[in-house]
Amino acid sequence: MGRFWLGATGVFMAGLLFTGAVDNEFYFFSGYVILQGLIMATAWNILGGFTGYVNFGSAGFFAVGAYISVALHQALALPLPFLILASGMVCGLMGLATGYLTLRLKGIYFAISTLAMAIVLETVITNWEYVGGASGAYILTPKDSLFFASYVELLFMVMLIIAIAAVAFARYLSTSRTGKGLTAIRDDELAAECMGVPTLRLKLVSATAMGVFMGMAGAPFPFFITFVDPLSAFSLFIAVNAIAMPLIGGTKVWYGPVIGALILGLTQEITTVTISSELNLLIVGVVLIGFITLAPGGIVGLVQDFSRKRLRSKAAPSAGGDR
What we know:
single chain; two-stranded antiparallel sheet; 15 helices; globular
């Protein structure tokens, strides 16, 4: 774990140096989008990858986090760190409550129920006039950006901190006793119950953690785009990215979503600049279909399969020589 925190500290320091060395705000906008995808991918993977419960309603938690931030900003004008914590707490409790209602379902029934939940949440937000309803709400960017040159640089560093926290939690979870229980549930839930694994409790922990980080990812979103409406908060592109990134990187390990988010996020940002942003959803769809059909284990699975084949090919000649 010490090596991980050393690397995380290095990433944080690199982010600080990046804000001081680069003047072009486009890089911070792009970095924010990639980090947002990384947090959401990591959060989705806690429930969808570690536990094996595919969640199609993840964008709903993200959007609720964004609108909790809007509501509290309008009511109390709280600073961003408090908005992030509040959004994480509300979405965590929402994940716990919805998990208690839906995690007894399995497979396609659970997936459909989470999609229905996202639709219900979007309907509620659309009719909530205090936060703008269907017309949306404008958010004025605060003038205070600490010692950063612009507010987008501050948002970039905030997202970097949340991303480090999300990845650190996922890494801890994957190596802990709870993570081993989640793996048992993913592999065979009935067998896990027979072995005494508290399946419902662990699934609720997973759903709560997913909600917390989805909400935290959504909280800074209104300040990033300065105008938020149900169409942007419940964007299909955001929802699909949260699922595609871990599937492309690999769902069974904590670093799979990180790999998927960096590769897919960078590809999308480069495509936006060089060709058109309209192609991003098409790229996600094509790449996702390719990985599901040809490499269901993602990039991590491909590398692991290649390593195993290489070890077997090396072991075969030595075994023949012993005879």
